[in-house]
Amino acid sequence: MLRKKWLIPQRGNLMNSLKRIAAAALSAALCFSIAVPAYADHYQTPKSIKGVLINEHAQIPDVLEVGASQVVLNFPMSWAFSSQLSVCQDLYTKLDQAGVTVTLIVLNDWAAASYSPSLLPVSQPTGASYYAFNTLNDAGVQATREAAKRVTEAFRDCVSNWVIGNEINNQLWNYMGPMSLESYINEYQRAFRVFYTAIRSTSQSSRVFFSTDYNWMHEADGSLTYNAKDLLDAFNNQMIPGGSMDWGLAYHPYSIPLTEPEFWNDRETGLIKDDASSPVVNMLNLSVLTDYLQQAQFRTRSGEVRHVILSEQGFTSTSATRGTTEDLQAAAIAYAYYIADSNPYIDAFIMSRQVDALSEMAASQAFGLWHCDTSKTNDIVATMQKPSWLVYKNIDNKASTLETTEKYKALIGISKWSDVVPNFRWKSLEK
Length: 431
Hints:
The chain is of the alpha/beta class. It has a domain at 42-251: TIM Barrel (Alpha-Beta Barrel), CATH 3.20.20.80. Helix content is 30%, strand content 13%. Strands 1-2-3-4-5-6-7-10 form an eight-stranded parallel barrel. A two-stranded antiparallel ribbon has the order 8-9. The chain has a two-stranded antiparallel ribbon with strand order 11-12. Strand 5 (207-212), helix 6 and strand 6 (247-251) form a beta-alpha-beta unit. Helix 4 packs parallel to helix 5, helix 5 crosses helix 6 (228-239) and helix 8 runs parallel beside helix 10. The protein is globular and about 60 Å long.
């Protein structure tokens, strides 16, 4: 469920927003030297779980205005061998210097074959969106080691969280070829160890994650797609003999289907249960995931529950069947954020994008907090904020959160958030 790179010029209403806050928010925070300082044990502790996906410098002011303390960015490995490496170093450093926790998704794109052919596990493209890092032979392991060293040294002082691959339980995003889950995880964990070692050799505090989609016990063929639960079990089991590592899980709890925002109705699909046999685990039954990870066999060497970040989720403002659903999107974001924020084992709640993308809108997946200019075919250009933007801005503000989300309770069919959100953070403020 990865989204494409953003190309967002400074124009429209977004430009107006940038002008209003750029001088105040960025003049001090973003002044720095791009030169990488001496080794530092780096981790930017986030102020809250609230985050968004971005890719461009032009997004930074809006990140600050909406109050997001975390961002996630996609990094195709081919960029490590081009001038894009320094562009990204500049972007990530500015975000970090502004007090924003940076999470980087490291992806092995086919274009990397032009620079380091041994990085790819196959000799010809297969139609997959991204590929696994090649650990099938010595040349591949060495190429993976060199690539990991290149990016970790470049970003050691600005990236706090690293996600190795995307939704690895579906080889569309991490292709290695048809194989059993055990064989697949054996190869993936070798690549994971390479990156983990490179990351921790430059910053002991940085966190390293693998990623799955929401198909907990659903839609697996055992050859190219795997259940997230089974993959989690296999990954953990194969990690133990080689020495325990402080891995974390980056999870993507979308609604069912992605084309409808009301995840609170997802039980009607028959895919949501409140135990580990659930076909799907999303925001509605998120505690299934965190309860599962509390088991002794998954805990760290010190007995702590593994770090979990919700690194990608979104709720559409355009329904495939009903047209505009902007208020339902805002309601879904409020409800989902409250669930995540009230769960003590969730470290991040990151919206999949800040601005709609035409490619996704065509599939009724308008996940952005901003509308985009539909006349632009290549660039993603912000035009107007949606109601969800204001909800997201105020969602973690004690003085305004309940007032901002009040009107959306009726859409969900509730009178109090505490009736549907376990351990609701703002319960004492409810009337």
